[in-house]
Amino acid sequence: MAPLQRTRTRRLAYATAALTAGLVASAALASGPGYAVGAGVGDPPAPTPTAPSAVVAPVAPAGPLTPAATATTAPTATPSKAAGGPAFGAYLDYGPRGVARIAELSRWLGGADLRVAHTYLPGDRWSNIEGLPGFLDTWADWRADEDDRLFVLNVPMLERNEENVSDAEVRFQLRRGAAGDFDHHFRRLAERLVDLEAPDTVIVLGWEMNGMTYTHRCGPDPEAWKKYWKRIVTTMRAVPGQKFRFDFAPNRGRDAIPWTQCYPGDDTVDIIGMDSYDQPRGQSFDEAVSEPYGLQAHVDFAKAHGKPISYPEWGLFRNGDNPTYMRRMLAWMDEHKPLYNTLTDYCPHGVWQCRDNPKASEIYRAALFGRTDTTPLPKPTDPAPKPTAPTPVPKPTPLNPPNCSPLELGDWVEYWLGGKLCLRFDWWSRHR
Predict the structure, then answer these.
(1) What are the catalytic residues (predicted)?
(2) CA nearest 310: which of 86, 66, 45?
C-alpha cells in the first residue's frame, strides 16, 4: 500500500488571508503520499534475529514520546558496511523534518547508522511529479554528506494518483504514457535530480502497481503499463550524468493482479522490492512467507532474475502491537539481506513516532541498537530523545493554487501557518 491506501486520511485544506493593498494570500495543503500494506499475527514463538544481528534488550521503551529505559545486556557484534551489512532507515516525514529526524532516530537507536532516507513525490499533478523546486533539495543535501548513503524516492507514474480514477481512464492514460505523451515530465525530474547532485537516487517507480488504489495501477492494462514503465526508465536514463536505480515494488501477495504479470523486464529493473505490512488480520508470519506472491516468492523471483531485493515500506498494521511480526520480519531481512529497507514510522505502522506499539518498539530498538559499520554495539543507557513535533500522518508539500505566486517565508513560519502563503494576482476579477 502507500499513499492513502486503506489507512490514509486525506487532509486537504485551503486557507485564505487578506493582505494590504487588497492582495489576497492563499495557503494550500496537498494530500500526503500515503503508505501501507502487510502481514502477520498468531505466530508461534520465534527466535530473535540471528547472526549477524546481535540483540540487546532495553526495558520497555515506549516510543520517542516517553523516556526509554536502560538496557540490561550488551551486544557482541554487528554487521559492517564493508561486509555488506544491509542499509536501513525509516520514512519519518514527508518534507525537511523527515531529514532532520534521521539523526534523532539514530540517537534513539544508540547511534545506529541510518544510511537510507525515503520520501515520496506527490501524485496530484504533473508539476509535483517533476519535483517542485525546493522540495528535493534537503534530501539531496543529506545524500551528498556521506558516500554510502541511499536516497529512495517514490515516483508516481500518473497525475491524480489517488483520486479514484476509473479503470477505463487508467487504461487510456497508461496507453498515452506508453506512446510517449508524458516523457517530458520524467526527463525534467531526472534533470532536477542530476542538478541537485543526487544522480544515484533509487527510484521506486509506480509502487504497489498490483493493487487497486493508485491511478498508476497495472491491472486495467498490464501490457500498456509495462511499456510505459520501460518508456519512463529509458527517458530518465538518457539524461546525462544519471546513475539511477529503478525499484519495482509491488504489494506483498496477489492483491488485484499477480505482480509477476506487471514485471516489465530485467533490462529496465535494477531492484525487485516489496511493500510488506502486518496484514491481513489474523495472518501469521509463516503465511506471509508462503502465500502466493508472498515473501518467499519475492526472494525466489529476484534470485531467478539476478536482482537484489528491497523493502521500501514495511511495518505494523492490522494486528496491532505485534512483537512477533517485528521480530520475524527483522530476522527475515537479516537472513535475505535486502539492498535496503525503510520502516514506515508513524501510527499505526511505526515504533518510534507512535506510542501505540511499545512491545514491537522494544524488539526493533533492541535489534538495531548501535548498528554501525565497524564499532561494537553500545548499551542503550541514554533516554530516548523526543522527535520534534511528531506527525502521525505524512505532511505534504504545499501546492500552489492556480494564478498564485508563492511567498518564501521559511520552514519555521510555514510550519506554524500550516502551509505556504501565495499571492493571487487575479483577485480583482472576483469583484467586478
Answers:
(1) 208, 313
(2) 86
| Measured distance CA(71)–CA(60) in Å, rounded | 10
For the chain, domains (ranges, CATH) are 87-368 (3.20.20.80)
Task: List the chain residues with pLDDT less than 50.
Answer: 2-84, 374-379, 382-399, 401-402, 412-413, 415-416, 418, 424-432
C-alpha cell recorded at residue 408: 518564501
Is-contact 316 326, C-beta < 8 A?
yes
Q: Which residues does residue 311 pair with via DSSP β-bridges, in sequence order?
A: 341
CA-wise closest residue to 161 among 205, 226, 224? 205
How many CB atoms are located within 10 Å of the residue 43 CB?
A: 19
Question: At residue 358, what are phi and psi to the nearest 5 degrees?
Answer: -65, -35
Cα separation, 210 vs 265, whole angstroms? 16
Half-sphere exposure of residue 14: CA atoms within 13 angstroms, side-chain side: 9
**Neighbour-count burial of 342, counting CB atoms closer than 10 A to its CB (0-12 exposed, 13-18 middle, 19+ buried):** buried
Residue of 130, 159, 287, 313 with catalytic role:
313
> What one-character DSSP code corresponds to residue 260?
G
Q: What tens digit of pLDDT does each residue of 18-62 get?
A: 333 332 333 332 333 333 333 222 222 222 333 333 333 333 333
Closest-CA residue to 310 (of 332, 288, 280): 332
Contact 38, 317 (CB under 8 A): yes
Annotated active-site residue in 104, 130, 159, 208: 208
Angle made by CA atoms 118, 193, 8, in degrees to the nearest 5: 35
Q: Is 313 a catalytic residue?
A: yes
